[in-house]
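re the bet — no i am not wrong, look at it urself. input seq straight from the record:
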Amino acid sequence: MKGKKRVAALLILWAILLAAPMAMASEGAAAGAESRYDGFFSYVALACVVGLGLAAGGGGIGMGSAVAGVVNAMARNPGLYGKFFMILFIGLAFIESVVIYTLVVVLLLLYANPLL
């Protein structure tokens, strides 16, 4: 029963997230500023926010998993501490670069508007 409530709450959340851009777009149409792309930017903004959230969450989970693995490896073989530490920082830099690239794409889509 608990799982059904969780699924229902998730569906309601998704319905609200998908309906919000349409509600925001209807205000512009009522003011007489009709265009071919009414509401399109709202969907782009929603996709940017969701995409950046997924990238940051995935990056956080990946970093946590990487640090846990390296700490476990250091505990098993303390003699290779320096190698593990260097590899950890290189891996964390790669993981963080993916999140930063996502942020750059989001900022380009929101402020440069290459799609319109």
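see?? The domain at 2-112 is CATH 1.20.20.10 (F1FO ATP Synthase). told u. also The helical segments are 2-30, 40-76, 81-112. so pay up
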